[in-house]
Amino acid sequence: MTKVIVPTQLRAYTSGLAEVTALGATLDAVLHDLDRQFPGFRFRVIDEQDRVRPHVILFVGQERCEELSTEIAPGVAIQIVGALSGG
After folding, report:
1. Do residues 2 and 70 touch, judged by C-beta distance below 8 A?
2. ∠ at Cα 23 (21, 29), nearest 5°?
3. In the chain, which ranges are E strands?
């Protein structure tokens, strides 16, 4: 199981949970498992062309990641960060 840290703006999809777990050997597999558990979650992170949305930053461990094929090593957490904007 991979620990996933969820930003505030996506917690409506995780029943308010700030931290969830998911199965998967790659970033894509983890996001698909999250979508299975929390329908609609993946679409908020990944667009129709299977790219990370511009307002989302993903970290696998300490490394920023945009490749869905990235392998997830055991014990490594994923953090999803939502960009903030203002004027």
Report:
1. no
2. 120
3. 2-5, 19-22, 56-60, 63-65, 78-82
pTM as predicted: 0.92
Each residue's pLDDT tens digit, 13-63:
999 999 999 999 999 999 999 999 999 999 999 999 999 999 999 999 999
Q: Are 34 and 52 in contact (CB under 8 A)?
A: no
User: Cα 30 to chain center, whole Å?
Assistant: 8
Can you tell me the distance from the alpha carbon of 24 to that of 62, in angstroms, rounded to the nearest whole number? 18
| Residue 32 token pair | 């698909």
Determine the Cα–Cα distance for residues 38 and 83; give it in Å rounded to an integer. Answer: 21
Our measurement of the distance from residue 2's CA atom to the centroid of its chain's CA atoms, rounded to an integer in Å, reads 11
Tell me how far apart the alpha carbons of residues 20 and 31 are, in angstroms, rounded to a whole number.
11
